[in-house]
Specification:
This protein is α+β, with helices and mostly antiparallel strands and 166 residues long. It is built from three helices and six strands; from the N terminus they run βααβββββα.
Amino acid sequence: MKFIDPASALEPHELRVRSEWIDYNGHLNLAYYIVAFDQGVDKLFEIIGIGLDYRKTDELGTFAAETHTLYEREVKDGDPLRIVCHILAVDDKRMHMFLEMFHAEENYRAAAQEILYLHVDLKIRRVSPWPDDIRAKIDSLAVHCAQSLLPPGVGRKITMPSPKKP
């Protein structure tokens, strides 16, 4: 049975932590959380029609403009992962997403990433509007995501409380 996250209505990407992704602390290195999230987004982009073929034939693509990653629980060598993508918002040139990484067997959330993508004309290296058919696909997926509560951590910012005064 395939896991379909009810909050996103999108089929998640599943993968395993690779041994070369492990750092000297014995867990997934922070950079490879980004790699795993990116692989999950690549799968979604293929479904939408903005994957590798889109880049090659239309010379259009996406650039990440901003990210924020939350590291919540460690994962280790060989652990199975599930990346769930949520489309939070889209406009003429941007797509705001929230990604969640779950341990696929123990079902805990290991990490989350909020990311803003820009649609780019690769010929002139400038932000450009989504083609109408692509925008319609993104809008339809975003509607599914909007029907559920936002995942924990959406919109979170980094803060460090001031020390308490004696």
